[in-house]
Amino acid sequence: MPFHYSAEEGSIRIEDNHILKARLKDINGNYQDAEIDLNNHIGNENGHFSWDATGFGGSAENVHFSIEGDGSVPVLRAGLQDVEGNYQERDLNLAERIENNNGTFYYSTIPRPYIYLVSAANVDSRLSSSNRISLKRGILRGDSIHVPAFHNLSST
């Protein structure tokens, strides 16, 4: 689940230009103090945020977090230094990769649209007996993904 939907109102913040902190709900509905070092997952490539990289905070200024727009998007904003030494104002939707896993932050190496695709396949009763789906869109187009056995949780 995207972390910001289960965070205590007003608890999400950035500290030291790279630590994301919040109080996140666990499976029992209790709020837990959580933090994740974004420097371990986000880099700066010539003035642009880059997932699956490291150390953006070392070349960033005015780092801040906000929930924006009608879709309540969790946005990280910062001025990122490019190779010429100029700072470029950039933003990043943290919900693309940062999730809440039982009251703790979790970084997903798979972009969110692909997670939804596989999740949808899990509940699709038309899965073949081989438990494989073929991707028809996106950067993984043409690839086949194995879907682990799934038990129908809706039946009693």
Automatic annotation (TrEMBL):
Tell me the Gene3D superfamilies matching this sequence: Cyanovirin-N
Q: Which residues form the signal peptide?
A: none
InterPro entries per UniProt: Cyanovirin-N (IPR011058), Cyanovirin-N_sf (IPR036673)
* The name this protein goes by in its record: CNVH-domain-containing protein
Where is each Cyanovirin-N domain found?
2-107
